[in-house]
Design brief:
The chain contains 6 helices and 6 strands, in the order βαββαβαβαβαα. By secondary structure, it is an alpha/beta fold. About 35% of the residues are buried. It binds guanosine-5'-triphosphate and magnesium ion. InterPro entries: P-loop_NTPase (IPR027417), Rab (IPR050227), Small_GTP-bd (IPR005225), Small_GTPase (IPR001806).
């Protein structure tokens, strides 16, 4: 049997990227979304990756979600993973002001520098709302930042899983609503997403001597 002749296993493949300071809960959010579990995770080394199949907006979708390390020493490595992402999730911790100020100091700049999709959808996520008594960043501040930078916005908790599904659903619905992001490259053909793991160096860096 030639499996390639059967109907595609998904309508679209979307590449999503998670960025933000170390400790804000990117990996926890991803685990909460893909496995419905929460555990105390170690900081990510480099980049991690998970796949989830979902039905959203009447479409069968394969989400390839890249979870980057927030620690600065991995920044050079993680920068290459912005390439081709249709959606970027910027996470901060509502109980740590520095993780919020670094959104404009670091993360929005990283997107400008490395994202290759002009119309890429950005989602701002304020995580750890279960720690309401420790909150230092108000919801209003999150809303204002999102408005200024043209992002979607949601607050959630990877721990209690409140709004975790909604995070990814909102992002994906907006991608589905953006025709330029549904063009070539995201169609449901069986392609090896692991090929994207090591982007080819561009001409300026690949010359040898
Ligand atoms: N209370 C609470 N703790 C959380 C939540 N999300 C994550 N944490 C905790 O925050 C710590 C950091 O979580 P991670 O998911 O490893 O953070 P990260 O953003 O992936 O960090 P790096 O991989 O270093 O970039 C862990 O101890 C988590 O258990 C949350 O929603 N509520
Ligand atoms: Mg992590």
């Amino acid at each position: 049997m030639d499996s390639s002749s059967s109907s595609p296993e998904f309508d679209y493949l979307f590449k999503l990227l998670m960025i933000g300071d170390s400790g804000v809960g990117k990996s926890s959010l991803l685990l909460s979304f893909t496995s419905d579990t929460f555990e105390d995770l170690s900081p990510t080394i480099g980049v991690d990756f998970k796949v989830k199949f979902v039905n959203i907006g009447g479409k069968k979708l394969k989400l390839a979600i890249w979870d980057t390390a927030g620690q600065e020493r991995f920044r050079t490595l993680t920068s290459s993973y912005y390439r081709g992402a249709q959606g970027i999730v910027m996470v901060y911790d509502v109980t740590r002001r520095d993780t919020f100020t670094n959104l404009s100091e670091i993360w929005a700049k990283e997107i400008d520098l490395y994202s290759t999709n002009q119309d890429c959808i950005k989602l701002l996520v304020g995580n750890k709302v279960d720690k309401e008594s420790d909150r230092v960043v108000t919801k209003k501040e999150g809303i204002n930042f999102a408005r200024e930078y043209g992002c979607l916005f949601i607050e959630c908790s990877a721990k209690t899983r409140v709004n975790v599904q909604q995070c990814f659903e909102e992002l994906v619905l907006k991608i589905l609503d953006t025709p330029s992001l549904l063009a070539e490259g995201s169609k449901g053909v069986k392609k090896n997403i692991f090929n994207e793991k090591r982007p080819q160096p561009d001409a300026s860096t690949s010359s040898c001597c």
